[in-house]
């Protein structure tokens, strides 16, 4: 069942003046070509659910890689609780978890359980703490039966959930997902979307990068439209639907469909 009150919830965040993650004046270019990111300014309030949408090559993934310091800004900055994330990258990466489109690129363990434990092991957490957190996340995502499987033998949806579990072990405050539905069948999409919405309802800040708005638009608080390396519009989804095609975002579902119906989760 999906949440029918995202817009009221987002308004409440702004009334309280909460700012958790902020991008200010971010720019990036390669060589003499045009900027892949051009003066990006955007804020992600604590506990919000933001969808970043735009056509392929518009800079969405480049922006994502800056959010926890995988890429260092050429100019501009990324702030977490008002502090530049570059000053404490280890803390920033614990608090801001990234789930990439290509799950195989994040898989490193020989079993699902060992893959999930990888990040905590790198931080040299006590073994009993790691084991406890891995078991907790396996149960939370209902994938305990996969714990001894080899990750590369999993289905696409199972791989995505394995990678998400590896992020959740670190207990991040913010979870950023890049095209999490790509290549998944219907059941895979539903499982991943259930995980995302459940985490949001638990208070996690969700940043979802997708071109496939029909699957998840009903659940977000705010929509950010990108094109040609720039943020073109930011606002409530209902206020921006008429502008999608202007910025290269395909709208395949027709003119009269309500936002509340744009989900693959049903009662």
TrEMBL record:
Subcellular location: Cell membrane
Any GO molecular function: ATPase-coupled transmembrane transporter activity
Family matches, as InterPro entries: AAA+_ATPase (IPR003593), ABC_transporter-like_ATP-bd (IPR003439), ABC_transpr_CbiO/EcfA_su (IPR015856), ECF_ABC_transporter_ATP-bd (IPR050095), P-loop_NTPase (IPR027417)
GO cellular component terms listed in the entry, alphabetical order: ATP-binding cassette (ABC) transporter complex
UniProt keyword list: ATP-binding, Cell membrane, Membrane, Nucleotide-binding, Translocase, Transport
UniProt similarity note: Belongs to the ABC transporter superfamily.
Protein name from the UniProt record: ABC transporter ATP-binding protein
Species this protein is from: Oceanispirochaeta crateris
């Amino acid at each position: 069942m999906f949440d029918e009150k995202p817009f009221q919830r987002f308004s409440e965040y702004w009334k309280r003046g909460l700012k958790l993650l902020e991008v200010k004046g971010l720019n990036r270019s390669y060589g003499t070509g045009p900027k892949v990111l051009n003066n990006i300014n955007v804020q992600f309030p604590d506990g919000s659910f933001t969808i970043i949408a735009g056509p392929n090559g518009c800079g969405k993934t480049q922006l994502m890689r800056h959010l926890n310091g995988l890429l260092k800004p050429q100019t501009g900055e990324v702030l977490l609780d008002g502090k530049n994330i570059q000053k404490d990258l280890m803390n920033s990466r614990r608090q801001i978890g990234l789930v990439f489109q290509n799950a195989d690129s994040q898989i490193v363990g020989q079993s699902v359980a060992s893959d999930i434990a990888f990040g905590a092991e790198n931080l040299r957490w006590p073994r009993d703490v790691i084991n406890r957190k891995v078991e907790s996340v396996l149960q939370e995502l209902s994938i305990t039966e996969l714990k001894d499987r080899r990750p590369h033998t999993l289905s696409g949806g199972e791989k995505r959930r394995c990678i998400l579990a590896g992020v959740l072990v670190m207990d991040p405050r913010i979870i950023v997902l890049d095209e999490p539905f790509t290549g998944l069948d219907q059941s895979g999409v539903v499982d991943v979307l259930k995980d995302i919405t459940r985490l949001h309802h638990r208070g996690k800040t969700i940043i979802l990068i997708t071109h496939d708005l029909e699957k998840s638009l009903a659940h977000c608080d705010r929509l950010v439209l990108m094109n040609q390396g720039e943020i073109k519009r930011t606002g409530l989804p209902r206020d921006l639907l008429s502008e999608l095609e202007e910025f290269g975002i395909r709208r395949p579902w027709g003119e009269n469909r309500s936002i509340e119906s744009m989900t693959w989760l049903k009662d």
